[in-house]
Amino acid sequence: MISSIPKWLADLFGSSLRPNVKVLETHYISSHIKKIRFQGDISKWSFQIGYANVIRVTETEYRNYTVAYHDKKKGIFDIIFHIHGNGVGSQYMDTLKANDELFVSLPRGKKFYEPNVQQQFIFGDETSLGLVCSLLPLLKKHKHQFHFYFELDEANKSVPALLDLENYTVFQKNGSFRNEKWINDLPVFQTTDWKEARFILTGNVKSVQTFRKVLKHRRTGKISSQGYWLEGKKGL
């Protein structure tokens, strides 16, 4: 979905974009990671691993976010937000508090989970935490071999532990995942154990592109990718 629309068009579709969920509670996992629990009628929503929801953050601006947890019977769902910089999405999510109402679209997008692939390898950053949280229960339930690689800011390096994630490695966000040689030397490539794995690459566009290039050159596994953000690009 586009990240912004003219105000006249937003006004035209105003009734369909009216608030449809409310905030139940909020929690800062770190100074820059905020988890929000929403409540609404989600009985007809299809929650697939990799799908995203569009959230209206101003009269004319919209942003995509991935649900980390949902319970249709209770009508609740959680989203984990990376609060950073001066982006309109970050600013809006930072201000949300209990009982606030807003518009959230039904989930849609690209499916990432393939239950028939035994080995699953996931790469991402702060923007990927919701995807990982939604995927972890399935990986454990179906006894997959799995591992997560995260590139995180120093302030967020403890977040995976606070989210009770498992089988992960945290790397400092310093541009290393833009270096093909450095990626080639990662532990995952020093063994044949992951040669047939499904690689799910998310997060920063440049990091995703570089990691994907290395995988394709090595002819390793099956690749799915989705860039969530790019420096200087609004509303990706």
Give the topology, please:
Elements: H1 7-12, E1 21-30, E2 33-40, E3 51-56, E4 62-65, E5 67-71, E6 76-82, H2 88-95, E7 101-102, E8 108-109, E9 119-124, H3 129-141, E10 145-152, H4 159-162, E11 168-172, H5 180-184, E12 198-204, H6 205-218, E13 222-229
Parallel strand pairs: 9-10, 9-12, 10-11, 12-13
Antiparallel strand pairs: 1-2, 1-7, 2-6, 3-4, 3-8, 5-6
GO molecular function: oxidoreductase activity
InterPro entries: Cbr1-like_FAD-bd_dom (IPR008333), FAD-bd_FR_type (IPR017927), Riboflavin_synthase-like_b-brl (IPR017938), SIP_fam (IPR039374)
Domain FAD-binding FR-type: 16-114
Written description of the protein model:
With 236 residues, this protein is an alpha/beta fold. The protein has two domains: 7-108, Translation factors (Elongation Factor Tu (Ef-tu), domain 3, Beta Barrel); 112-229, Nucleotide-binding domain of ferredoxin-NADP reductase (FNR) module (Rossmann fold, 3-Layer(aba) Sandwich). It has helices at residues 7-12, 88-95, 129-141, 159-162, 180-184, 205-218; strands spanning 21-30, 33-40, 51-56, 62-65, 67-71, 76-82, 101-102, 108-109, 119-124, 145-152, 168-172, 198-204, 222-229. β1 and β2 form a beta hairpin. The N and C termini lie close together (9 Å). Residues 16-114 form the FAD-binding FR-type domain. One of its GO terms (molecular function) is oxidoreductase activity. It holds the Pfam family FAD_binding_6. InterPro entries: Cbr1-like_FAD-bd_dom, FAD-bd_FR_type, Riboflavin_synthase-like_b-brl, SIP_fam.
